[in-house]
Each structure stands twice: as structure tokens, then as C-alpha cells.
Amino acid sequence: MLARTLPGGGQPPFAAMPWRPCVHLAMFAHRVRDLECGLYVLVRDARDEDALRASFRDSFVWKRPEELPGGTPLFLLAAGDYRRHAMSVSCTQEIASHGAFALGMIARYRETLEESGPWFYRRLHWEAGAVGQVLYLEAEAAKLRATGIGCFFDDAMHEQFGLADDRFQTIYHFTVGAPVEDPRLATMEAYAVR
């Protein structure tokens, strides 16, 4: 699922983005089969790995899980139960802690805006949206569900991962897990066609 969010190979939707990938995935893994619970990062552009390592918390281990399919640039940063933290940074929404995993989309921020101009901020969100759409499709294909989390505390997320400046910035949050029916919502028949 995460490998599908990687750019490259000229595949949609990322082939439509003629710029260097800017968005990386800072994850809280809760319930993923054969993957240790903890904090992870998916480095979507290898050219940013050193900058991410320098910007993230010094105590992180940066260990590649052995169970991954070949070459997926996912790194375990810290093992443990981070469900409460995931919920806390996502405006205390339980969906961030009850699923398989939650993540924050971390963009290479200051350098990108300095090089391209403030107008590029919109494109960071376009890229995050494309990553989210891929995750929606992959979750459905795996008989799971996904949702964006529009409310999040960026300062708390930055503190969790050790980000101390605006070199990288969290711009969107997302979660994937088993479907849960909400009895507060109603489904109605479609309007009759005349």
C-alpha cells in the first residue's frame, strides 16, 4: 500500500506532477500485520533522507523492517504504542488511534517555497491530495477504509518527530483501518429519475 504512494516510473497520478516529490509520510503504526508498532517514516524522495534524519529527533533508530518488499524506503524510528500520541496530534480524534495506522504528510517546506515561491504552497497540497487518493484506493482494494484528517495540531506533530523549524512542515493527516459503520449517518434512496 505504501509502495504505491512512491513516485517514479511515470505512473499516474504522480506522473502529472512535474516537480520533485516534496511530501513524505510520518507514520504511527498501530495494527499492521508483521510490522512492529511504532513511529515510522516513508521517505518518498531519497534526496531528502539526510535532511529528514538531521531534522527528526536524534534518538530515532532509522531501522528498515526486514518484512518489507524490496526497496520500500520505510524506516522504523521508535518502537512502541503511539496510539494516544496519534490521537492527540489529530485533534483528539479516535480515528487516528483505532485503525491500522495514521500518518502526517510532511512536506519539504522552507527550501521548496524559497526556490519556487509562495505560490508553490498550493502544489504541496496537490501532492498530499494525490498521495491521499492513492491511499483511499489501496485501502479499498485491501477491504479496509481510509479517511483524511483535516484537523491536526502541527506543533504537537512536529514535537513528536523532533522537528524544530520549518524545514519540513506537516500539511495533512490521514488514517487507514477497518470500516466502522456510524449509526448517526443515514443512507437514503436516490431521487427518482423522471
Structure description:
The chain is of the alpha+beta class and 194 residues long. The protein has one domain: NADH Oxidase. Helices cover 28% and strands 21% of the residues. The protein has helices at 49-55, 83-89, 95-98, 110-116, 121-141, 154-161; strands at residues 23-29, 38-42, 74-79, 101-108, 145-149, 168-177. Strands 3-2-1-4-6-5 form a 6-stranded antiparallel β-sheet, with helices on both faces. Strand 1 (23-29) and strand 2 form a beta hairpin.
The CATH class: Alpha Beta
What structural class do you assign from the helix and strand content?
alpha+beta
Unreliable residue runs? none
The helix fraction, in percent, is 25-40%
Query: In the CATH scheme, what's the topology name?
Result: NADH Oxidase
Distinctive features:
194 residues; alpha+beta; NADH Oxidase; 6-stranded antiparallel sheet; 6 helices; 28% helix; globular
Summarize the helices and strands and which ones pair or pack.
Blueprint: E1 23-29, E2 38-42, H1 49-55, E3 74-79, H2 83-89, H3 95-98, E4 101-108, H4 110-116, H5 121-141, E5 145-149, H6 154-161, E6 168-177
Antiparallel strand pairs: 1-2, 1-4, 2-3, 4-6, 5-6
Summarize this entry quickly.
With 194 residues, this protein is an alpha+beta fold.
